Amino acid sequence: MTDPSQLPYKHYQTGDLIIGAIVSQFNCLFDEISFSDHPRRKLVDDLIIMPKNYQHVLSMVFAMKEISENPEILPNVSLGFQIYDSYVNARMTQQNTLKLLSTSEKLVPNFKCEKQKKLISVIGGHDSEISLQMATHLGIYKIPQIAYCVLAPVMNVKTQLPSFYRMVPNEEQQYRGIALLLQHLQWTWVGVIASDNDNGEKFLQTLIPMLSQHNICITSSTKLPALSQVMKAESSDGTMEIINPLMARAISLITSKINVYVVNAEPQTTNCLKWLVYFSIVLEGISETSIGKVWVMTAQWDFSSLTVHRYLDIQLFHGALSFAIHSNKVLGFPKYLQNLYPHLQTGDDFLRIFWEKAFDCSFSDMNEDKESRDTCTGVEKLDSLAGIFFEMDMTGQSYSIYNAVHTIAYVLHKIYTSRPKRRAMMDKGKLASPNLQLFKLHLFLRSISFNNSAGDSVSFDENGELAAGFDIVNWVTFPNQSFSRVKVGWMDPQTLLDQELNINIEAITWHSIFKQVLPHALCNDNCLPGYRRQKKEEQPFCCYDCTPCPEGKFSEQKDMDDCFQCPEDKFPNKNKDQCLPKHLNFLSYSEPLGIALASLALSFSLLTALVLGIFVKNQNTPIIIANNRDLTYSLLVSLLLCFLCSLLFIGRPHAVTCYLRQTLFALAFSVAVSCVLAKTITVVLAFKATKPGTRLRKWVGKSLTKSILLGCSLIQASICTAWLCTAPPFPDLDMHSLPEEIIVECNESSVTMFYCVLGYLGFLAIVSLTVAFQARKLPDSFNEAKFITFSMLVFCSVWLSFVPSYLSTKGKYMVAVEIFSILSSCAGLLGCIYVPKCYTIILRPELNSRDQLIRKY
After folding, report:
1. How much is the pTM?
2. Across the chain, how many H-helices and E-strands are there?
3. What domains sit in the chain, N to C, each tagged with a CATH number?
């Protein structure tokens, strides 16, 4: 065991101004202090190295080298540095922070001398706890501290730690990015793994509500301790009580049906996760290739490994996604690493132990067991190391340190160049004076903005955090312990709200078990378009049933909470996943039904005209004279108009056709029925007038028929005139009666007036039928009463069936019903009244004589 105060590891370089740093390359296991025993000095049980973190040291040294070689930044001023390790331990962190503040290696705070080093800033630490432990001391002296920890050490950083800055963006942006990423990939059923500490609790308290706001369910939440805590447990009596539950959690993780886990990827916890998963696989005999999970890591993840994990397979994390601190390639850094050899470095206590642990060898002058390890030559190549131990390109944390060093240099440059020119010439070389006031550093730090050598802009926001976003990295692993990090997107909160997240899904390499198909992370399958989600009782909101959209509604996307009505001029298709334009519905001359009805109307019109021609030609024959020639002509003309007015109902309705169709039809029909009524009354009165002593003789004549015809027609004309003057019909579009069609119709405007017109026609028809029925047996060879009776029976039957048929149909079929009723009722009148007469006139002319009339009479 080792005395922690004697841990020698540091890296230093002298200079006029000193930049301090606390890194985290080593992890020590310390014995617990018992206050019941006498204090001991030997407390360190073991020293574990995280080799990749040595790049943090090298990035700082390389940045200092760049600055010293650039005379335009700090002329006549040399920058030095002192780098200590935190050992991931509060006591060691505070001890080494005090060393930075002291005059010499002895811990003598608050003591100044003329030759004291001028500490102007400190970089670190690697995580929030270390950063806070440093800040408790640095804040007293107002020394600027630039951390590269992903999590802030306190909630309100700028208020509680005014001298604290972070070379990383605010973690709230990362959490929002995770929520947007899961939502974008439609992963709504995920597990969460967090650290079993305050950071993990803060992670859960912040992330889980944010995921809920984006409709993402947390199916399991697992807390894992730091690996150091597990390793301490191995030497205690309660080992199995601690290890067994952890192993059970790890087995549950890798065997569950959850495909996606969001991991709070603090290094200590992820190392514990890797260790537990590895031994769970060994114990359960599970094939690593059969374990397919998508790990969504926070920006602490760097795919680094402890040297004790040298042989742990990393294939389990193939295809993982992580948020990462934005980094870029720094020219010259790989070449600098290639020329790094232990025997050429001075002042660096980290390098030799890093070299031995990374290359698994030992130097000949080290007092260790040399039989079990190869001898280090000192010329091994860093680029031969596996990526989990070392990378030749800067990692996100190293890039942050590199930017932090340049930020301090540019601040000093701004202070120098902000002086008046004359004084600046006089004060050359005095920038390193002990009188350099730290408040000026803070003043310029808050407003600093520059482009680094990689072309990235570096500046702080109002909270003292880097004004930037996060990269999204896809990690592709290989069997030889190497890996490739592929940038597949970014999260940039400085862009428009709906463009914060940008990701290229096609560029992502998934775990081989998914066969390059986007993994699913759902409680149940997506609801397809045409369906809507219906929540399951007593289940999380991410679990639901899929129910078809009701009639008349649609859903065009997956997992819609509700179905929507199509616009008025559209209707849902059969699958109810999109809207189709509605067809116009009206009786057209171009469709078979319209052609048939138009042809029928024209045919009946021609037939009526033919009958009229026959009657005109034979107008002086007894059969025509006996049945009131004028009324006969009037009836034929009105029937002709009825047949022709039915054509107004065919074709797309317009203002003129809507205005005329019902009124012309009503007037023509009223004239026709009035003619029939006049004929019937004339026949009845004629026979009544022949009786001796009757007074009806004076009513028989043309004046009566004209009065009946004009009177009945004028009443209908008055009704139609009132209709047209008060609420005339107009063309209209009915969007709702038919689900897939728009009915182009003539809106009657006043239904009351429409039914008054029809009611009056019905009244005339019933009166005509009643009178004709009374006169059907009068002894006259040319008596029309029986034929009128039949015709009015047909007429009334047609129009009685018309009303329910008209009301039960929609669109063009409603119009077709009315046309058919017009044609059939008119055809009934034409056929029943005039066909017998035409038969007599054309085929039996011998019956069309006065003698036959008198004989029968």
Report:
1. 0.70
2. 23, 29
3. 4-26+45-168+395-459 (3.40.50.2300), 171-298+303-329+468-514 (3.40.50.2300), 531-581 (no CATH), 592-856 (1.20.1070.10)
